[in-house]
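Batch manifest, entry 17 of 40.
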Amino acid sequence: MQLTVGVAVLIGASWLFGGIAEDVVTGDPLTLIDVWLAQWLHVRADPTLTRFMLVISHMHDPWMLSVVVMCLSLFLLYRRNWVWLLSVLLAVPGGMLLNILMKLAFQRARPTFDDPVLTLVTYSFPSGHAVGATLFYGVIAAMLVIQTRSWVLRSIIVLTTLPMVALVAFSRVYLGVHYLSDVLGGFAVAVAWLTLCVVGIHTWFQHRQARQTAG
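Output type: structure tokens
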């Protein structure tokens, strides 16, 4: 069941990313929505909301995530939880590296405004903040979900994780440093990569334990 669901999620997320990436490259209607939404949010920016979004965005900068991931990894190392230690190290840093390679491959320019809130010179697609938040909160949610048998608690974990990822993604669009398709693409590729890492590592460990038991 775990492998079947994982494969289904992997295929679905990969298909979604492929569709978004195709729209970005060919300039399909999604890119028109990108520009309209970016302009709409920019002209309606509120100073108080802008400060809040800056805090949310900077809390999920790559260096901040790196520190938190290091602390989580040290905790898992102390607990000798090798399965989740490997999952965290492969999913989050590996996914962020994948994001950098994708940015270089697509080379999409960021939104531009006459009076920008933030100015970044790196490429836009897919969003690194959306990827990082999805991977970090996603791997923690996966750990908690697998370790609890209560469907109520599992639902609470998932329903808590999704708004956190959405808030980080929205902060980047609101601040004018990403288009909507950037954060959607980041979410899709992160879900695909996270699923591949978690399901792949757990399946490998389970087969390894089965061989040891049989031997």
